[in-house]
Amino acid sequence: MKVNPWTLGLATAGLVTLPAALQAEEKLNPLLTAVTPTSLSGAVSTSIHWNPGTGNAFTSPRLYQQGKADGFNLDVVSLTLDKPLDESQWAAGYHVDLWFGPDANTFASQSSVDPDTGDRLSSDLAIKQAYVSLRTPYGNGIEWKVGVFDSVIGYESHDSYKDPNYSRSYATSIEPHTHTGLLASYQFNPTFAMSAGIANTHGPQINQRANPPKAESYKTYMASLALTAPDDWGFVSGSTFYGGFVNGFNGGWNGSQFNLYGGVTLNTPVKKLKVGTSYDYATITDDAAPGGSQAELNAWAITGYASYDLTEKLSGHVRIEYAETDSGIYQTGTRLPDGESRLFGVTTTLQYSLWANVISRLEFIWDRQAGDNDMRGFGGSPEKDETQGSKRDAFTVALNLIYKF
After folding, report:
1. Domains and CATH numbers, the chain
2. What whole-number distance in Å separates Cα of residue 247 and Cα of residue 276?
3. Which of 56, 103, 142, 272 is deepest in the core (most CB within 10 A)?
4. What CA–CA distance (Å, rounded) separates 151 from 175?
5. Structure pTM?
6. Is the pLDDT higher at 20 or at 178?
7. What's the rounded mean pLDDT across residues 230-246?
């Protein structure tokens, strides 16, 4: 029995399943045999932003919010190819995340270079993740990732549909994003897991090296642990704690960066209510090129979360956060005289499932330059004789629609 090329192509992509008789006949096709278990998924994220008032354009301290004020936006189109590990002892698979759109510029995977300045040019295409996954049968099985993978620390995901809010926290801006290297993960028991890895740099630029200015052998190191409350712990069963660090060379700062992270998500006696909190710390050291100098920069952020399922389709989410940082880490305009920026933010999100496969969210964001009365950094209306960066507060109303497939 023969199968037409279109059907065979869909089966090869994992979108359809061939009947048993056809699978038996086509089993000699090595390509079909290799990729049939692959799954294809993805999402299209769009948004509408409104910033009340005039003269409110500002460089947001939040990742993925730049250039989206007062307008319609394509955020990102994501495509994922995944062949997960099976139950065999020497299992193998792979995972690829491709991003298209303005948000893809975060991952610095572009290869074109400005011939005049030598700077890498922005690109609306990124390889967010691309790694080979392997299992070695030691103990419960060590799982390996070799290639480009997400950072081991952070409360929020770069895929916003996995997060309680549409926008990202202040902390996300000071965390590493992706690494090119090797990561090992081991599940000791149902309550304790650990990961450790080595990478070229702090990331996210693929295949970037720390040399120069560092030695050729200079690498980035990372580790994380995860604790899950056991089933006999009452209402907190299933609650999780994550902690970890990343230390290595950050080419964007031309110095080494150390990140420390801890986060917890707690179930509560109220079945539909979950709360969480996280703490992030980052320091960029002054070890640039030999004979040179780079001012040491520090930042920290603490974030609190609460989520409640109001109905089967409607849920509410609140995020409250505070961050302090030296000049240059959050690009928010004028800062305190000592060069620091102090940020306070409140985000409220209503999520409603009206259409199949669609996440629809209405979000209100309040960003405030905290501290003394000299603290400014947002907006500024020329009609009111206000210069850019003369406001303390920035408000954003965003409608986010994501189709998942």
Report:
1. 1-36 (no CATH), 37-404 (2.40.160.10)
2. 25
3. 103
4. 8
5. 0.84
6. 178
7. 94
